[in-house]
Amino acid sequence: MKAIFHYVNDIIKGLSTLVSGMAVTGHYFFRPKLITTQQYPENRSTLKMKERFRGEVIMPHDTNNHHRCTGCGICEMNCPNGSIEIITKMIETPEGKKKKVIDKHIYHLGMCTLCNLCIKACPTGAIVMGQNFEHAVWDRSKLTKVLNQPGSEIMTEVKE
Amino acid sequence: MAFDIYDFTSLTSSIHEGLATFLPPVGVLIAEWLLVGISVLLFVAVFGLILVYLERKVCALFQQRLGPMRVGKWGLLQTIADFIKLLMKELITPNKADKFLYNLAPFIVIIVTFMAIAAIPFAKGLQAIDFDIGVLYVSSVSSLGVIGVLLAGWSSNNKYSLIGAMRSGAQIISYELSVGMSLITMIILAGSMQISEIIQAQSTGWFIFTGHIPAVIAFIVFLIAGTAETNRGPFDLAEAESELTAGFHTEYSGIKFAFFFLAEYVNLFIVSAMATVLFLGGWMPFHVGSLDGFNAVMDFIPPIFWFFGKVMFVIFLIMWFKWTFPRLRIDQILTLEWKYLLPVNLLNILLMTLIVLMGWHF
């Protein structure tokens, strides 16, 4: 008798779990607003990437063409596949002191795996991950980028 | 030519008389065979393409996707483009394949679906052959398809194909039993195996309502077993894309692959059509007891729309199963059949017999 009870119970339980599964998919089916697919080339103007998306490494500059990079080279050391090259130069400050500043922050997008290690390692927060993902170019030399803009300087408030 | 969308007998008889005026009786017979053959062929091709498109769209909606959107408005031309692509592809025969059986298998599979469609009643008078054992005919013919599947798996000289075919064989043979049992349950209620009579018996109410509890159980069992019979998910372990690449039709390409693909969807249609005929009243409109106004409105909708509407409903249910449930393991499939469906079915037949004998149905 107990066995029969278990048998019937099994069937009812099985059916009810099946129905609850179908309720989930049915819920999706009748709500087309939940569709997550983006129609990419058409929605290019309104497309908004998620904040955590890693498109490329960029160096933000403010309106006065100032960045936060001290040229310390920690990002270069942390990069697992050598996508970053730091070229520094010595300048003379108005006080007459010699100072090492960044000349070129060279970033090879073609080699970068977007692992985020350089951004985690940067002590001054000079580089961040950008949202742009349309990286296709006709010539691979275009994938080598200089992140600091020409003539840019380090922000005065950044402590070295 | 008399054309009445509510009763196709006038159309068919006028075609028959029109042919008889200038052809001898044998010629009329051959011409009618050809006409029926061409219409079945066209129906299979067109409905198969529509079903493939629907499947992709329905699947996408269940998974919060859009599905095909690029070819034509809403991707409507997608399956046609796919079909043209398949037609142009090279037909590959693997090394050391059994050439004769390898080429024969897709034709067996597709011919079986044609044979089954012949007994499907699309509307009043729109049925190629009305056997007095129609239900038995459809169930026996559709089980022939497994021969094609086994041949395809065996002759491909590929381990995945063979495993897929063997699984498919074990599965179809087991579930054939459940399909047959649930059909028997409904035949007991209908008192006939002739499809037109079964539908006529439902003019006062569909069997799923008049047969109440055992009919509902039989409907559920039929849906489960029918899904397994068509080798669709969650019983698709004969194809099991993730394990066996594509199962028995791994080695097929081009139009031969299209035959298997089309046959799968037409089998889906046949199972749904049988469910419609036996449980949902075939092409009979929905009638409620004595609500004459309501019944008149329902009668106004032509039977062919009723039939396809119900078929689409059942197809949608089966698609819903496929895109919700995970694939069963082979031992789970056999457990479900032999330990659950079969005993439930046998008890259900007893219950139905009791209800029919006592006159408890409506």
Account of the protein in words:
- The complex is a heterodimer of chains A (160) and B (362).
- With 160 residues, chain A is of the alpha+beta class.
- Chain A has two domains: 2-34; 56-154, Alpha-Beta Plaits.
- In chain A, 24% of the residues lie in helices and 21% in strands.
- Chain A has helices spanning 2-29, 74-78, 117-121, and strands spanning 56-58, 66-67, 84-92, 98-108, 128-130, 144-146, 153-154.
- Chain A has a three-stranded antiparallel sheet, with no helix packed on it. Chain A has a two-stranded antiparallel ribbon with strand order 1-5.
- Chain A is elongated, with a radius of gyration of 27 Å.
- The mean pLDDT of chain A is 87.
- The radius of gyration of chain B is 21 Å and the shape is globular.
- Chain B has one domain (93-358).
- In chain B, helix 4 runs antiparallel to helix 5.
- The longest helix of chain B is centred in the N-terminal third of the chain and has 38 residues, at 25-62.
- The two termini of chain B are 40 Å apart.
- Chain B has helices at 9-22, 25-62, 78-88, 99-117, 134-142, 145-155, 159-190, 195-200, 207-210, 212-229, 241-244, 254-279, 292-300, 303-322, 330-358.
- Chain B has 362 residues and is mainly alpha-helical.
- The chains are: A alpha+beta (160), B mainly alpha (362).
- Chain A binds chain B through residues 10-11, 15, 18, 21-22, 24-26, 28-29, 32, 34-37, 39, and chain B through 58, 60-66, 69, 220, 320-321, 323-325, 340, 344.
